[in-house]
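Recall from the previous lesson that a structure prediction takes nothing but the amino acid sequence as input. Here we apply that procedure to LLM class flavin-dependent oxidoreductase from Candidatus Pantoea formicae. The sequence below is the only information supplied.
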Amino acid sequence: MATAQTQRIRLGLFVQPVGQHVSGWRLTEKLGDPTDIDWLITIAKKAEAGKFDLFFVGDALATSMYRLPSTMARLEPLTMLSALAVNTKRIGLAATASTTFSDPFTMARSFSSLDHISRGRAAWNVVTSFSTDVARNFSRNDMPNHAERYARAREFLEVTNKLWEGWEAGAVQPNKETGEYFVNDKIKSIDHDGEHFQVQGPLNITRSPQGRPVIIEAGSSADGQKLAAETAEVIFTAAASLEEAQTFYRSQKDQVIAAGRNPDHVVIMPGVMPIVGRTREEAKALWKELNTLVDIDNGLRQLSLRFSMDLSQYPLDGPVPEVPLGEGNQSRVKLMTDMAKRENLTLRELAAVAAGSRGHRVIVGTAEDIADDFELWLKEGGADGFNIMPAIMSEQLDLFVELVIPELRRRGLFRDDYEFATLRENLGLPAL
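The prediction returns the following tokens.
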């Protein structure tokens, strides 16, 4: 495995168009719109100017009045990233898409199309849906259980990979003399007949520039970690402390090895919300102001939705009640309840965290403070990079690009420019 000293930090930008912090939109000088493609292009170009590896958008297939402004209404990710692809040159473009309510042929075709449009910069964040609100949008009253969702996801990935590999390199060789455009022997059906899917193939689009999109996964449950060890190339996670991150990092890399894969070919990137100031005092004042503006009632509703239980019956200034792990988002529930126990948080305090950073780690300080933190996590085996979550869009992204990235470069921890054309190459992943 490459030593930490030879590594460079990978950076993703986790995009919420009006800021990751629930109060961030209230402090911006210029309020964006989650469905304004010009605003999203502006953000993508800022990230590309900073040489971020990834522009990443999450997604959900249901909404409610209690969601963040960025997520209550938003553009469909693949449609949006296709527009960004023709307005950027090098930054990777990653979209979340669920395996629970889709089919492999459509998904493989859509992501292959994005990879062609972007000339090799597409990535798929593979998720399973867990909300009953989503099920009701797809003609169901309930959600498949956790094990069933992951069994379907595993076969779903198996089928999409077969479809992507169904077109070999060199399958397109137009010959005007013979009138043959394709080399038929290099295009194969897959004839998949499994428990969840029966797919003939081949895919009706040529082999994509990367061979297949970069595969991202974020599940930290036992099933999620196992699937990621077998199939993921980038793993998004959440960790509240270096020790917690090191434990996850070692466990996940060991599982990658056990799956017969090279651990250097799996990039682990925890989410982090940096609150950047030109001075520590400035950063601390901003963080305090953000949290002062949090609507605790809304935070409590978000936490109740996350925990699948009504928390309004419990005293706000009392301890966080015991939360049984159910069939929903197990990893995030455990992370937040562990944080509450470790830091002795009241229900009010955890609701503020849920509304603010949604359980991800927050670093408050100067560019030097943030670079110190990132360097420590890289060298001590806590991360290969970070998924950056700007609290205020675009002011905090601007400060990160202006102050933090030059400090990381000064330490030899981040690139001066993109070295390659494709996302796979820029992440140091093997060609396919």
